[in-house]
User: Fold this.
Amino acid sequence: DFILTDVFEQLVLLSKDPKIAALDATDSETRNSKLYVEVDDDIRAIYHRFNSIIDSIYIDIDDGKVSFYQGSQQLNSEFSYGHYFKEFTGNKESFYWQNIHPNMLMTNSYDVISVFHLIESDNPAERGILLFNLRADFFENVFNKSLIGENGYLTLISSDGNFQIKEVPDGYQLDAKTVQVLNQLEQKEGKHT
Assistant:
């Protein structure tokens, strides 16, 4: 099943959507209110189609002046994504993966995995984020259903850490040097974000 690929495809399509570009390129006085409704409908449809994997969808442009949210939990009004522009760099398409981490988007923090697109600009008023928080339990279920033998395990490796659900003896863990080599290989091939 290609659900993770489908979700990422939705993020890419949303990032290239002319409605998002129009919201980003215009000031609040000249924005067409119909765009708000259409974008809200789009993210609602994505959320409901993929709610087995997507925990929440958040779009923000111009530091809260234009924002959309779809999810089942209460949104944290204090959430800020400014640090993302310092922490996540080097991807020419501005798509990123953040391994298991506390969901700071919600008032009730719990672990999620995130895929997101940064809308980059020298003008802070034109910066934004399209954020999909993914359910950690989705990945746990996938890992638990895998046909890995008793001594094997699956792990997701990214520059911000590893995600695995099975406790593995130290002798079988990937060491820091191996993880670094794997990250460098992925970066050279353009597959790593």
